[in-house]
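User: Okay, second chain of the day. Same drill as before: sequence in, structure tokens out.
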Amino acid sequence: MPLTKQNLFKPSLYWLLIFLPITVWVEHALPESHRLIFFSACLAIIPLAGLLGLATEHIAARAGEGFGGFLNATFGNAAEFIIAIVALLNSQVDIVKASLTGSIIGNLLLVLGASFLAGGVRHSVQNFNPVGAGSHAATLSIAAIALIIPAAFHHIGKGLISAELEQDLSLTISLVLLSLYMFSLLFSLHTHRKLFTSDEHHNGNEHTEKPWSIPKSILYLLGSSALIAWMSEILVGSVEQAAHDMGMSEVFVGVIVVAIVGNAAEHSTAIIMALKNRMDLSLGIAIGSSTQIALFVAPLLVVLSYAIAAHPMDLVFTRGEVLVVVFAAFLLNQIAVDGKSTWFKGVQLLALYTIIAIAFYFIP
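Assistant: Same drill. Structure tokens below.
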């Protein structure tokens, strides 16, 4: 529902936009109230994510679901990228790696699982293009292998391989991943774009008004994404202390809490699209965001760290982080085979995410 004179005063999530100024006021007036800042920023992000999803839906109506999902993933990851840059400037490389891991598994398991569950409750069996989904799954598997190699070199060659050599290895792999990401965009948005769009006609659940123009939709995307990035930065500034006040470890905060908050836009939009039986767009948002994190954001941060960080970032993730990414990529390959989703597949994905979250919660 767009913001118009006719519906501005109807019951709507857009009333939560009042939490935008409230969050800013609380951050400056009560800087020690980390829990209050955290919950206020969360509430502020909800309507902004709704606007982001609305703009994505209108772009998809004009430019195709593949391009719509790509734009949503790109703008949805803007907050995480900004957060990671700030963390790199403060030499918090471990937090950056944890949040990247959490974003990948969060989109693959939590967002996709919630989308399958929500859409499956309303629609018994939903269809998506298995070739496009399989292509995403294979690309993510390559990214998972790319994370295994630096970690293997680090742990197997401990004492034999210098830190400088590990950084050179990570930089070289990052450049390969960035190249792969460029080719994946060419494949999904140009040469084989039809593989990422369902041939089915959607029912009357879609918006019936004339789709917005591309410039108007992009303007909404830019505006809502900028505000989401702002609110996310405020939120992450308080989430660590708020989480510790609630008895959560730093690892859990990085992999689970920060990742969930940073992916708020994708969470709501992917679920909304699944409810409207637009599964190719829903998958494009959820899986596309994970692919972008693994093939673009992470390697780009490695490259940028040479210019902005006190010490260059590498791709040597912990064994636990590597394992959960590999598990998520493996399960995605199993689910993408038949091109069909049900609510039980959603439960399966959410169950694995819950198990991983519990494991990270108990890490001291």
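Confidence is low (pLDDT under 50) at residues 5-11, 201-207.

User: Thanks, on to the next one.
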